[in-house]
Amino acid sequence: MKTDNKNIEPVATGNAAEDGTKGNIAERNKEMLTFTYVEKGQFALVRKPIPHIINPKDAIVRVTLGSICTSDLHIKHGSVPRAVPGITVGHEMVGVVEQVGSEIANVKPGDRVTVNVETYCGECFFCKHGYVNNCEDPDGGWALGCRIDGGQAEYVRVPHADMGLNRIPDNVTDEQALFVGDILATGYWAARISEITEEDTVLIIGAGPTGICTLLCVMLKNPRKIIICEKSEERMAFVRKHYPEVMVVKPEECKDFVMNQAEHGGADVVLEVAGTDDTFRMAWECARPNAIVTVVALYDKPQVLPLPDMYGKNLVFKTGGVDGCDCEEILRLIADGKIDTTPLITHRFALNEIEEAYRIFENRLDGVIKVAVKGN
Ligand SMILES: [Zn+2]
Ligand SMILES: [Zn+2]
């Protein structure tokens, strides 16, 4: 376990440090503002030294725009045991590369980049198979803003930066790219592993931010019908407004609705992105025999898999934990106008207003879906 904030040393300046580090961070920026996990139940604005290159595979990114994810709230409430008190939180961000270590080849100072929620080595068994979430490196998987300092700050140190940073095309704005490294990567991965065809009726359970990102990526597959199940009136209205071709249904009417719409006794593909007490059961009950049920949701409690009840249904279950290795392709789709997540950004704040951003996001006030937090 490492935390950057223990290394209180001046940052290397100049363009060609002796260790091969390239880039420049001005002297005046020796300290920065961060949003920090102090202890269970408490995040706070804390000033820390700005990070510097520790490993030749690191990069330092100046965060220009970040966001708040439900996983940040899970850390705050103590439900992520591996989260380390004292770390800067935040794992959804875009920025500009300020410094790179001597072994970085894919990005250079000045590049605008997305930052992947997962840091991964690219070399172990899992990485070679595209299963980057299970990377065996000590920093592998979800480390940023959980086990090492994250991006609700002015700067972030990104390990394995050649893997986790992707250059943002010139015609893509920071707001358009903001969700590429986390919730949009999740939606893209979920749609990819669900093997959707153009003949399919697809049910998505949950129209929160990740549910909508999943919807956008399912739409790329052109299935015959898409049904989204959501209990919040506000979120139902959001889907109706922005994606009128999608059918929207409430949980209590979902099963009957799907049975009426689908041709073979249930949805051909179900993606469960809600994670409430009832939605796992709903997912497999709404699936037709031999369907694929992809579980993206993170549950608070164990779920029951009642095999006798589903005997003969021959379902295929795929379970969650994004392998975020398609960011370059996702950025290309955004640049081509095929994915647009900007309607999800309902509120904008400066970094020093982040406590208010959390208050609005956590309590779902004022029609919030996602917030954008401007770094510097
Ligand atoms: Zn997240
Ligand atoms: Zn790896």
Regarding quaternary structure, what we see is single chain
Radius of gyration: 21 Å
Q: In percent terms, what proportion of residues is strand? A: 15-25%
Query: What is the class of the largest domain in the CATH system?
Result: Alpha Beta
Low-confidence spans: 1-15
Shape: globular
Looking at CATH, the homologous superfamily of the largest domain is: Medium-chain alcohol dehydrogenases, catalytic domain
Going by CATH, the architecture of the largest domain would be Alpha-Beta Complex
Helix and strand succession? Answer: EEEEHEEEHEEHEHHEHEHEHEHEEHEHE
Bound molecules: zinc ion
Mean pLDDT figure:
93
Structural class: alpha/beta
Number of helices: 11
The CATH topology annotation of the largest domain reads as: Quinone Oxidoreductase, Chain A, domain 1
Could you describe the largest sheet, including whether it forms a barrel?
A: 8 strands, mixed
Distance between the termini: 28 Å
What count of domains describes the coordinates?
2
How many β strands by DSSP?
A: 18
Account of the protein in words:
The protein is an alpha/beta fold. The protein folds into 2 domains: 4-182 and 324-374, Medium-chain alcohol dehydrogenases, catalytic domain (Quinone Oxidoreductase, Chain A, domain 1), CATH 3.90.180; 187-319, Rossmann fold (3-Layer(aba) Sandwich). It has 11 helices and 18 strands. It has helices at residues 70-76, 125-128, 161-164, 174-177, 183-193, 209-219, 233-242, 251-261, 279-285, 327-335, 354-362; strands at 22-23, 31-39, 42-49, 59-66, 93-100, 112-115, 118-119, 141-142, 155-158, 165-167, 201-205, 225-229, 247-249, 267-272, 287-295, 316-319, 345-350, 370-374. Strands 1, 4, 5, 6, 9, 10, 17 and 18 form an 8-stranded mixed β-sheet that branches. The longest helix is centred in the middle third of the chain and has 11 residues, at 183-193. The radius of gyration is 21 Å and the shape is globular. The structure holds zinc ion (ZN) (2 copies). One zinc ion is lined by residues 69, 71, 91-92, 117, 182.
